[in-house]
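Need tokens for this chain, all 90 residues.
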Amino acid sequence: MNKIPLIKYEQLPYREYNNGINCRYSIKIGQFYSLNQDNSRTKWDVYLKDNKTNIVYKRVGDGRQIGNFHPIFINFMGEKIQIEKLLWIE
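Here are the structure tokens for all 90 residues:
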């Protein structure tokens, strides 16, 4: 597993997403890379912090344009999961 030190997670200049006080995971989404000309397929640097254990995981997210929605999926704990679903785990 790719783990990064907590201090480097806090220093990342990327925007952080979390669900509030009781959230299990916080997510920072970093640089994205377009895979085609119309930006309908993208790769993202995703940093996932487990707030209970203070372990930070680095994953590569796969984004796909579906209408007006561009969900980002990562492989985490053995399954492909959308990152928005991780924000609702307590």
